[in-house]
Write a structure and sequence with these properties.
This protein is 49% helix and 0% strand. The protein is mostly helical.
Length: 189
């Protein structure tokens, strides 16, 4: 039995040293374009889901008015759309370059309409480590965070006011089309 315990101890020490050397090597994936480590996403999701299940508040947001959803859409447009997209719009170039991928919350595949609003609220308030998702707990009010959570919970059935608030802002004319080139000056004769 003593030999077995010693073997386990030596194995744990060896694995710890190998893990440390791997992290210190040039082979540890740190770039957003690197493929994930085996089980990296699964382990991160397990930890995320466990923490959120414990801490996410419960709140019924189905009663929020169209005006409150439109206010949530304005907050989303200003703070979230750059990474998480808008309805019927492609992801921004920055969002396409993120690792882990920033979910496009108005697409059929990545919508969070099946999540309780408290889960979305928790993510907005606290952010998610090592994902690029910041915490908005100190920059948005409680009402604003709940409005965004309600908006995303009902993303597939929004009232017209909220849909209008989610339309991309118009591109200024000076950016949309280049100014006409000036005619070359006539040469004096």
């Amino acid at each position: 039995m003593k030999g077995f315990a010693l073997g386990v101890l030596v194995t744990l020490i060896a694995l710890s040293i190998l893990g440390f050397l791997f992290i210190r090597s040039i082979y540890m994936p740190v770039a957003a374009t690197d493929p994930p480590l085996p089980f990296e996403e699964k382990i991160a999701h397990m930890a995320e889901h466990a923490r959120i299940a414990k801490d996410a508040p419960q709140r019924d947001v189905s009663h929020m008015s169209a005006a409150e959803l439109a206010a949530g859409a304005a907050v989303y447009q200003k703070n979230c759309a750059f990474c998480h997209g808008l309805p019927n719009q492609p992801a921004s170039a920055a969002a396409r370059g993120m690792f882990p991928h920033a979910p496009q919350l108005f697409t059929q595949e990545e919508t969070v309409t099946d999540d309780p609003a408290g889960v979305t609220y928790w993510k907005v308030k606290n952010g998610l480590r090592l994902t690029g998702m910041p915490s908005f707990g100190s920059s948005l009010s409680e009402d604003q965070m709940w409005q965004v959570a309600a908006l995303l919970a009902r993303a597939d059935q929004l009232p017209p006011e909220a849909q209008d608030a989610l339309k991309p802002p118009p591109v200024p004319l000076s950016i949309a089309s280049p100014a006409p080139a000036a005619a070359p000056a006539a040469k004096p004769k």
